[in-house]
Amino acid sequence: MKKKICAAVVASVISMPSMADFLGVYAGIDYRTMSTSHTANGMSGEFKDSNNLSGYVALEHFVPLIPNAKLKYSDLGSEYNDGSINTDSSAMNAILYYQLFDNDLFEFDFGVAYTKVETDFNNLSTELGQAYGAAKVHIPGVNMHAFTEVTAGSLSDDNATDAEIGLAYTFNPDSNLLNFAVRAGYRYQDAEINNFKQENKGVFAGLEVHF
Fold first, then answer.
1. What CATH number is attached to the domain comprising 40?
2. Is 6 part of any domain?
3. Which of 44, 79, 147, 194 has its CA 20 to 30 A from that of 38?
């Protein structure tokens, strides 16, 4: 029995690199500098530029017909120019998606998202069903790629958009155990809830790990 257990352990270790090609976890965090605007009933609010964090985690696998999964969270809090009021806002996306293309030059994902946006402006919140798309274009000869990601659309009167574009450089890309990438770009988010609209836009830089 011990020999069988040892053989199973050895076989598992040997097979780990090949399994890593088909099963992976991506996790990232971004530091953002963004401008914020609020519009409610025709009146606009002026806000200071703010520095916020956002993050995500995704699970990709090799099982046919079962979608990959991704969870994103964004802190969208801001402060009025006169410092009188701090607003607490956030957005969360739970995404199911398929990889329609995945090769050395081009990747394309498409799926659906459940989005929840909350703000303490009149304690407003909304929950949306949305479309999701993402793409990567790899630059031959270097460990760099361009990326874009969009969550948009709505099945109700409320609406929201989350769109980003940027560049990433991957270190140790051939490792089957762990690699990481530094990334930077521009991100735009908005939300319309009843007669209230919030926009957040600006540049970001972050780190993504893949294992």
1. 2.40.128.90
2. no
3. 147
